[in-house]
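Quick one, T. Sequence first:
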Amino acid sequence: MSCCGQTKNRTAVPNDAAAARPAPRHTLEFEYVGRTGLSVVGPTSRTSYRFDRPGARATVDSRDGASLARVPVLRRVTR
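Structure tokens:
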């Protein structure tokens, strides 16, 4: 019995899903030392980080770390 060739064509198509998968990200932890609350958006990841009260901590995408470190009321927490 002859084959229509569809299987052969399907295996020749590159898997774009694997190429589109983001690389694993590293995270940093920041603590809010202000007096009320604060919301910031990471400029690289576009993730919104919310610090509800003084002492609140958030896990931050490392790509946003340098920008958040320049916010006077945020302190990077070393683990």
